Amino acid sequence: MKVQNARRWAPTGPRAWLFAALSLLLASAVRGSLHPVLGPASPGFAFCIAAALIEYFFGLAPALTVMTVGLVIADYLFVPPYGDLTYFDRSDVTLLVTYPLITIVVIVLIERLRRAQYRSELVASVAQCRYEILLRSDNERLLARRHADETHRLLRELTHRRDQLVFIRAVNPTPLANDPAAVPAIAPEVVPGTRPATRSLGNGLQAGDRFDAVHPADIERVLTVLTPGAHRVRLLTAAGDYRLTDALCERFTTPAGDFFILRLEA
Question: What are 147-176's pLDDT values in tens digits?
Fold first, then answer.
């Protein structure tokens, strides 16, 4: 991947130049404090270190400025005759050759390393963004597949076990499911000419084939709790009395909302 912005890793603004000036002052103070010990030896080492540090934190332009100004300060203060730039001898030539050469090599190496580091960070950020996009798309695909599976399961429940269906209740429906006719729209007449599997009672409740055969108190109890699982309800028999019957409440999560279906086990 070709990254054009890798060369723009360094921060910009007056802060970089302020630190460049402070590094020159600090390098001059360090070299001046060591001057009684070193004398004319290594006049530019402190400025070379200062330029390398500025390059690492603030980039190429401030570092080259520190190197250039440091060369003048080192030649003026720490190369004999001290305090005189008009006199030019072998010490000046040595400083003019060795100090810029070493400093430029160090600066260029640091610049390349910093660009490579910044490029790696940019590539990692792009890869992270792409991974998040792919992960989000994969999650949406899985969610859509789950909704489709739940809708198909709901349709099979309404068609294959309609003779055992007691009721279907819509919970947290979408605006479409707020319409009393929305639940039948999920499971329209499967076979042309047949009656619908449910009839609307309003408020998201649809009555099934066995709704009238179940004791009203049991229906109210199940609707109050409305949790998936096994239930015991009283079913009206042909003799006119009620007997306990096993029922099962299931939950279906579809794009139209959540639906609870209560059906008889036998």
Answer: 888 888 888 888 888 888 888 888 876 554
In this structure, the number of other CB atoms found within 10 A of the CB of residue 111 comes to: 18
Band (pLDDT 50/70/90 cuts) for residue 1 is low
Q: What is the pTM assigned to this prediction?
A: 0.57
In a domain, 180, yes or no: yes
Helix residue ranges, H only, 39-187: 45-58, 60-77, 90-160, 182-186
Q: Are 32 and 83 in contact (CB under 8 A)?
A: no
Parallel, antiparallel or unpaired: strands 165-171 and 257-264? antiparallel
User: Which carries the bigger pLDDT value, residue 236 or residue 195?
Assistant: 236
Task: Please check whether residue 247 is in contact with residue 233, taking contact to mean a CB–CB distance below 8 angstroms.
Answer: yes
Long-range CB contacts (within 8 A, 24+) of 230-235: 231/262, 233/166, 233/264, 235/210, 235/264
Any domain includes 135: no
- Kindly report each contact of residues 112-117 with a partner whose C-beta sits within 8 Å and lies 24 or more positions away, as own/partner: 114/9, 114/10, 114/55, 114/56, 114/59, 115/6, 115/7, 115/9, 116/6, 117/9
Structural domain including 89 reads 10-128
Angle at 45 between CA 41 and CA 47, to 5 degrees: 130
Residue 7 backbone phi and psi in degrees, to 5: -80, -5
Q: Would residue 38 count as lying in a domain?
A: yes
Instruction: Say whether pLDDT at 60 is over 90.
Output: yes
The verdict on 116 and 192 lying in the same domain is no
Residue 32, Cα to own-chain centre: how many angstroms?
52
Give a yes or no: residue 4 inside a domain: no
Share of the chain above pLDDT 70, in %: 87
Instruction: Clarify whether residues 63 and 173 are in a common domain.
Output: no
Which tokens hold the place of 90?
Answer: 């072998």
